[in-house]
């Protein structure tokens, strides 16, 4: 054979081998900025489900504090050896449509232990040793004087903290008094005893108890450890108040934001729709006091530096329940509620609703930018209503970005109808929901690769990977589900030009009061822990970047190639390149990464979560799945990684 031909052949073989090796490398094109990433890319979705608000993040410890539950004494027990028939009565005061019921006690020559009431709290009252608790009530004394003995009792009925409160006024008006007590021990399921001593006819209402360690120390505020879990995520937005409670079982049961603002005692309690939704998880004591109302939601978003994203009813009740509709000609008040909400959030102090906001202690606007119209509504009846909302809101507030529902699932004929209609309407953002198997999330990681770049943006408003139905409760929050979500999220991030917002759902669940699982964060009366899914969400949210970078393997986007799913971003403020790689294989993968570009990189860190796909976190092992960080070095713009099985890997590389 001619030596030249042989040399050429050998060169070709060597070149093919080199190219083959190169093709197996991951290339990060550090100078190739594909699209900006919105500050709202990763956020949180809040709904009062699973006792997420009352009995959860809203730190009130007394259940049925105003006797407005369907059964007025639910949560309360009558105590004492000198109580006769008729000494304790539930009455209604006229002229108060919001909070009419109160408890009247006829206290006759009573000592401690003679006449009392006990509250069981929400699956017990969690109290911490050495912590101060603020007790208050509204009352009016018709005659005599009464002294209140207020005390915590633990699971064994031992007193673990007490104080006294002497009611000061004896006129016919309602008054409020408060006093503090300190717990002398920690108990997850304490109760609150109130003993009445003296001789008096007294009415009591709004009996309340809050820990002093609320978020930012606000009296009557939110549970600090639960809010801290959100603050640690650095969310770009908070979507509220739901979820299906926006729709209600019927329209009378829908969420009405105007009834959730103003003085606490004037906020009208309603039954939470999750009270009766699931026969296998009944919750007859689940109501909404609205102590966490729209003002508090806006305030929380502001505290966390997140955009507020309220969702309003569009004149349609839940279509899985009553499917009740408001006729189009009667839709005006619903649209007006939306216009008034924008004024409440953004109006100046001289406007009607801006003045209301200022009276609650926030004279400056909240700078609302987003508003959702309806939740998981569908059909032509939804489109008809969506068009009217869009027309009226855009006429007055063209700058507000409106979010519309694409129904309950991502694949059906119903979805495609809504998606086409909403895009024809030139909707700003379309809300897509997916509760599917881990396998669905892996197969759909490239879902948005082919979406129209110039049309409506996407809000992945509710998503979670659901394992098979044999697993229940917090056991559903497995690493298998979380890693599938991580793989899917690389596809969302890679397509940030299309996907502007995303949030896992639901957010919170009480370990003894849940109706729906899986959930991002689990709580009991004393403790809170993040699931593996939580740490996935947190890693994406705290490593958001500012722009998407090009990233390929074998000249393709990395979405299932060799079991890998990946995305890369650049943070032009922090001067970092951030790479997220998910290995869904059962074996370790040796992977070379080539940093293709002019940016010089020498050091960085890698954060890893990995482990048994069936594993999970718990109250006892809260950090079983949590990020572990180590330093890495970059040589000649390359690095070699050993990607452990079933792992999420986040690399942060400093550049100059």
TrEMBL record:
Domain Alpha-L-arabinofuranosidase C-terminal stretches: 461-647
Q: State the SMART domains in the record.
A: Alpha-L-AF_C
Single GO MF annotation: alpha-L-arabinofuranosidase activity
Q: Which UniProt keywords apply?
A: Glycoprotein, Hydrolase, Signal
Any single biological process term in GO: L-arabinose metabolic process
As its record notes, the protein acts as a catalyst of: Hydrolysis of terminal non-reducing alpha-L-arabinofuranoside residues in alpha-L-arabinosides
Where does the signal peptide begin and end? 1-20
Q: Which family does it belong to?
A: Belongs to the glycosyl hydrolase 51 family.
What PANTHER family does the entry give? ALPHA-L-ARABINOFURANOSIDASE 1 (PTHR31776:SF0)
What is the name of this protein?
non-reducing end alpha-L-arabinofuranosidase
What species does this protein belong to? Pedobacter chitinilyticus
